[in-house]
Automatic annotation (TrEMBL), chain A:
Needed co-factor(s): pyridoxal 5'-phosphate
Family per record: Belongs to the class-V pyridoxal-phosphate-dependent aminotransferase family. NifS/IscS subfamily.
Record-level Gene Ontology MF annotations: cysteine desulfurase activity; iron-sulfur cluster binding; metal ion binding; pyridoxal phosphate binding
Species lineage: Eukaryota, Viridiplantae, Streptophyta, Embryophyta, Tracheophyta
SUPFAM superfamilies: PLP-dependent transferases
EC number(s) per entry: 2.8.1.7
Protein name, entry field: cysteine desulfurase
BP term (GO), one: [2Fe-2S] cluster assembly
Keywords attached to this entry: Iron, Iron-sulfur, Metal-binding, Pyridoxal phosphate, Transferase
Automatic annotation (TrEMBL), chain B:
Pfam assignment, any one: NifU_N
One Gene Ontology molecular-function label: iron ion binding
Cofactor (UniProt): [2Fe-2S] cluster
Gene Ontology BP annotations: iron-sulfur cluster assembly
Taxonomic placement: Eukaryota, Viridiplantae, Streptophyta, Embryophyta, Tracheophyta
Protein name per UniProt: Iron-sulfur cluster assembly protein
Naturally occurring in which organism (per UniProt): Lolium multiflorum (Italian ryegrass)
Top-level taxon of the source organism: Eukaryota
Its biological purpose: Scaffold protein for the de novo synthesis of iron-sulfur (Fe-S) clusters within mitochondria, which is required for maturation of both mitochondrial and cytoplasmic [2Fe-2S] and [4Fe-4S] proteins.
Annotated compartments: Mitochondrion matrix
Length: 456, 171
């Protein structure tokens, strides 16, 4: 308990609205984990993977994950240190207080998406939700429903679940998307068959940030009597979601994309009309048998707190984030030509900026941007040497798909960070273009597509 | 406790300790790390640039494809009398390993005879840069680029062979 007493005031001590950002900074930079890269003694330089970085990189990969909001951590800590009961314990105070906290969190999550708390089921994250939603729903209705519709730009866990269903004999339609990344509603309507059991379309794409027309898809699904599942991991707390207005039947949510802890998510399952799923895991029947396993109280409480904060600050965050996105884009475009935005700019969550820098290869750009933690839209870094399947689905040329970088802006991103990222990106792109034979050809007026390249 | 631990991390003694603990892990987890030579060539590429490709003493090799994510252009300037490569330069669109491979290639061909450079093997480049298997194609591309440059130079000479050079010999 001595630990708790000394630890809690540290996190609880907070000033007015402005210093709110300071604890987050301090947390993200000072709290080095034990296996962090070795820091040189003389300065703040870090050497990792053979690359020397002068300090911790600034973080612009908010689609991958976000830092925990200090206010979320405040809410969580008591449930690690003093109120550590199992929420399923029915015989003592420890269990009761944990259970009450879990139910409060359930209500907080439900409230953010306009749902009833009884429609929220806690899981380990969006991947698990997607598995339960896609496979669980299809398995439950397998007698009458043999067909699933999804899009080519879905997250891997949805696509992989669909592939799994295919192996079991289900039919899956992978809808193409338009060049701006959005689903064509007419095409979706045509794809629906009498035995279609599920339409799964993600709310906000993780790579390109486009926002799908959920309301229209929901209406279409309601008209045709098909369940509508949406993976809203990237959308929760960032764009307004109302499960009733959008006609959503099943929805996957994740905590760590909205400044909550990693390792917890929630599945929304509609009660009226009721949608049922087959559980993917056997066990003690927790979460009404949908997801067995002890509910992790601190994580769930953190998730609830994150939702609560998001519901209060969504508008404020959106204004800040879109201003920063504009600043980043304008800053880069002012000094670099041939920059292409991947995905619709109009229907987009502004915290995502996926850019292709023509004539510069994405992986080499990332290598030079070691001081900015960003991600390449291309999967080159995962050793497959294949450009991103999402960009390919948009019809982006393969050479351009190799040149994309995803910048993620979030609640704790500062103007100074955006300016520094702009500076480093511009510098590196110009340097690599100086080195690029394609840029040289383009400047000399040679059409790169007219050349017979030796494919290897 | 946690709190003081956090501040103490900054102390040199603890940092050194952390460093020592982290090092072996780093080496083991470094499967996807870039070798320091790759980083060096990426940060300070040697011989970036272009020669006039219409110069009769210049051979140009352009290999790869944008769709594959790698294009290398390697050029050599050859001394007509001795057949020695006096200068070389490159431009590369590709990952760090591709840039490093072509940078190394220009260094290795400089000052060598043309017959000698066509024997440079991709495996030597890959070994020099400690390229992982997924990056071996970068070194193959560099080998191809050297060969293509030499071939281009020879083709140019053969074409011009009917022209001024032979005329000069006849005269």
């Amino acid at each position: 308990m001595a630990l708790a007493r000394r630890l809690l005031p540290l996190f609880l001590r907070r000033g007015g609205p402005l210093p709110r950002l300071t604890p987050a900074r301090a947390l993200s930079t000072a709290a080095l984990p034990a296996d962090a890269p070795a820091a040189d003694e003389d300065d703040d330089a870090i050497t990792i993977k053979g690359v020397r970085i002068s300090g911790r990189p600034l973080y612009m990969d908010m689609q991958a994950t976000t830092p925990v909001d200090p206010r979320v951590l405040d809410a969580m800590l008591p449930f690690y240190l003093s109120q550590y009961g199992n929420p399923h314990s029915r015989t003592h105070l420890y269990g009761w207080e944990s259970d009450a906290a879990v139910e409060t969190a359930r209500a907080q999550v439900a409230s953010l998406v306009g749902a009833d708390p009884r429609e929220i089921f806690f899981t380990s994250g969006a991947t698990e939700c997607n598995n339960i939603a896609v496979k669980g729903a299809m398995h439950f209705y397998r007698d009458r429903r043999r067909h699933v519709i999804t899009t080519q730009t879905e997250h891997k866990c949805v696509l992989d679940s669909c592939r799994h269903l295919q192996q079991e004999g289900f039919d899956v339609t992978y809808l193409p998307v338009r060049p701006d990344g959005l689903v064509d509603l007419a095409q979706l309507r045509d794809a629906i068959r009498p035995d279609t059991g599920l339409v799964s379309v993600m709310a906000v794409n993780n790579e390109i940030g486009v926002v799908q027309p959920l309301e229209e898809i929901g209406r279409l699904c309601r008209e045709t009597g098909v369940h509508f599942h949406t993976d809203a991991a990237q959308a929760l707390g960032k764009i307004p979601i109302d499960v009733n207005q959008m006609g959503i039947g099943l929805m996957s949510l994740s905590a760590h994309k909205i400044y909550g802890p990693k390792g917890v998510g929630a599945l929304y399952l509609r009660r009226r009309p009721r949608i049922r799923v087959e559980p993917q895991m056997s066990g003690g029947g927790q979460e009404r048998g949908i997801r067995s396993g002890t509910v992790p109280t601190p994580l769930v409480v953190g998730f609830g707190a994150a939702c609560e904060i998001a519901s209060r600050e969504m508008d404020y965050d959106e204004r800040r984030v879109s201003a920063l996105q504009r600043r980043l884009l304008d800053g880069i475009r002012a000094r670099v030509d041939d920059v292409v935005i991947n995905g619709s700019m109009e229907h987009r969550y502004s915290g995502n900026l996926n850019l292709s820098f023509a004539y510069v290869e994405g992986e080499s750009l990332l290598m030079g941007l070691k001081e900015v933690a960003v991600s390449s839209g291309s999967a080159c870094t995962s050793a497959s040497l294949e450009p991103s399947y999402v960009l390919r689905a948009l019809g982006v040329d393969e050479d351009m798909a190799h040149t994309s970088i995803r910048f993620g802006i979030g609640r704790f991103t500062t103007e100074a960070e955006v300016d520094r990222a702009t500076e480093l990106t511009v510098h590196q792109v110009l340097k690599l273009r100086e080195m690029s034979p394609l840029y040289e050809m383009a400047k000399a007026g040679i059409d790169i597509k007219s050349i017979q390249w030796s494919q290897h | 406790m946690l709190r003081t631990g956090g501040t103490r991390l900054a102390a040199p003694a603890l940092r050194r300790l952390l460093g020592e603990r982290a090092q072996p892990g780093l080496a083991a987890a470094g499967a996807r790390a870039y070798h320091e030579r790759v980083v060096d060539h990426y940060n300070n590429p040697r011989n970036v640039g272009s020669f006039d490709k219409d110069d009769p003493n210049v051979g140009t090799g352009l290999v790869g494809a944008p769709a594959c994510g790698d294009v290398m252009k390697l050029q050599i300037r050859v001394d007509e009398g001795t057949g020695k490569i006096v200068d070389a330069c490159f431009k590369t669109f590709g990952c760090g390993s591709a840039i490093a491979s072509s940078s190394v290639a220009t260094e290795w061909v400089k000052g060598k005879q043309m017959e000698e450079v066509v024997t440079i093997k991709n495996t030597e480049i890959a070994k020099h840069l400690s390229l992982p298997p997924v990056k071996l194609h970068c070194s193959m591309l560099a080998e191809d680029a050297i060969k293509a440059a030499v071939k281009d130079y020879e083709a140019k000479k053969a074409k011009l062979g009917d022209g001024p050079a032979e005329k000069a010999a006849e005269a």
